[in-house]
Amino acid sequence: MKVTKVCVIGDLHDAPAIPKERLRWLGKHIKNTKPDQVVQIGDFLSLDSCCWHIDNATMQARKNKGTFIDDINSFDAALEELNKGIGNNFKVKKHCTLGNHENRLWKWEDRNPEYYNMGKRELFGTLKKYGWTASEYGEFYFIDGVGFTHVPFNVMGREFGGVSVERNIGQSSLFDVVFGHTHKFNDVRCPKIGNSNYIRVVNVGCSLPMNHIESYAKLSTTGWFWGVVDISIYNSKIQEVRTTTMDTLELTYGR
């Protein structure tokens, strides 16, 4: 029986002001556990410079967003830290399922066509520099029959959401799903008609620093999970799921 081990890094949200140490810990965890593949589930970087929710009407507002090149330089430094943690002796396939924060760049270029593809060239060039492949926002990346994506889209072409988002996804899916986006960990089995028939949906939480809450969520209920998730797949199903918190990663590798 072929077992495939996948290390899933949740929404990481790299940004110039957020420390990079966690990337080294994640890399050491990957080196230690030796997965067959690493999947970063999207929102690898926040790209606040491309955020349309922050108005550009005043110079001060624009300054507070930072610059695109600062975001890319920060991302380059983050990926370098991750590679240092993994080391040179362990080679592993690495893939990112781009998220809504990367999609900020797509929207920004659409609104500023004179810069079309310039930002994407920087983003994909940085990923390629460190050996990452990527799939588009909303697309599924399949590993042995299990679908990985930042967040699935519903029949209306919008992200699945709601309190029972995992169950909503499971009721609509024909295959097991691994996703992120909400920053909350959940592992749900949705029963189907038939003997021992079910769809398993795993929400991997986020890989931000422990207890870090993004500014947009300061006044909302969170229940976030900070860490990394290791998944074992065989017979085209998620069979085992193991979580490791960011605190544990720091205690284990932060020295």
Describe, in short, the structure shown.
This protein has 255 residues and is α/β, with parallel strands linked by helices.
Please describe what this structure looks like.
This protein is of the alpha/beta class and 255 residues long. The chain has helices at 21-33, 59-65, 68-86, 100-111, 118-129, 165-172, 246-253; strands at 4-9, 37-40, 93-97, 132-135, 141-143, 146-148, 177-179, 185-191, 198-204, 227-234, 237-245. A six-stranded mixed beta sheet has the order 4-3-2-1-10-11. A five-stranded mixed beta sheet has the order 5-6-7-9-8. Strand 6, helix 6 (165-172) and strand 7 (177-179) form a beta-alpha-beta unit. The longest helix has 19 residues, at 68-86. The radius of gyration is 18 Å and the shape is globular. The relative contact order is 0.19. The model has no long low-confidence stretch (mean pLDDT 92).
Biggest sheet character: 6 strands, mixed
As residue ranges, the low-confidence spans are none
Order of helices and strands: EHEHHEHHEEEHEEEEEH
The radius of gyration computed from the alpha-carbon positions, rounded to a whole number of angstroms, is: 18 Å
Order of adjacent strands in the largest pleated sheet:
4-3-2-1-10-11
